[in-house]
Each structure stands twice: as structure tokens, then as C-alpha cells.
Design brief:
CATH architecture of the largest domain: Orthogonal Bundle
Shape: elongated
Strand order of the largest sheet: 1-2
Largest sheet: 2 strands, antiparallel
Number of strands: 2
């Protein structure tokens, strides 16, 4: 919300002019900054409110893993998903998905090379460079 008072005034005038008790209409509003507005006025204007909290650590960790795999990225077991989950506290699922899409471009995915290294004792190790 850039200016909650401006929006509140416009909605109040619109509601007073066009909406009566017989009017069947649903108004949906979404904000990532509910603290910027006046809760008392929000409750007066909207009959119902549904709060969707930001995802917790476990959910964020799973979202990072899922979104990276959906886009075609490959993660090694030692990839620090926990670090991504920690630094993305306060981010929505949409923001995490958009970040994955912006970072994992076709160009970047094409630059990743996988080499198989065979050691003297016969064990194999994959190395992503």
C-alpha cells in the first residue's frame, strides 16, 4: 500500500454510493503490509478477513527444493537448502518461486557441467562445475 488513507477514502465513497444490504458482491483485497492500514477501518469495511501467514522454515525448505526441481535444477545432497530457508524468512511462496525462475535460467542450466571422477580405488564421484 502506497497510501492506505487514499485507498480507504475511495473505497468508502464507492461503498456508500453503490453497495446496499441487497447488493450481492464480493470484494477481495490482498496486501503484504497489513500493518500499514488501520485495523479498525479494515474490520468495518470488510465483513470477513482471512490471514495467510508466511511459510515456516520447514515449508520454505521444501518449497525451495520443489521449485528448483520443477524448473529443472538438480541439487546435490550437500546443497545448503537450510541456508536458503533461513535467509528467506518473511518471503511468500510466490516470491520464492519467482526467485527460482529468475535465477535458474536456461543459460545458467546449460553452463552446468557434470564430470564423473573415478579414483584409483574404483569409487566414483560426480563433480558439478
Amino acid at each position: 500500500m502506497s497510501n492506505p488513507n487514499r485507498i480507504e477514502k475511495a473505497l468508502s465513497k464507492w461503498r456508500a454510493k453503490w453497495i446496499t444490504d441487497e447488493t450481492r458482491i464480493t470484494i477481495v483485497a490482498c496486501t503484504s503490509e497489513p500493518h500499514e492500514g488501520n485495523k479498525k477501518k479494515f474490520k468495518k469495511f470488510f465483513d470477513k478477513a482471512i490471514y495467510f501467514p508466511f511459510p515456516d522454515y520447514t515449508t520454505r525448505r521444501l518449497m525451495w527444493k520443489t521449485f528448483i526441481h520443477e524448473i529443472g535444477g538438480k541439487l546435490k545432497n550437500e546443497f545448503p537448502l537450510s541456508t536458503l530457508a533461513h535467509i528467506s524468512a518473511g518471503y511468500s511462496a510466490g516470491s520464492i518461486k519467482k526467485t527460482c525462475e529468475n535465477v535458474l535460467t536456461e543459460f545458467r542450466k546449460s553452463k552446468v557441467s557434470i564430470f564423473i571422477i573415478i579414483s584409483v580405488d574404483g569409487t566414483t564421484t560426480s563433480c558439478i562445475i
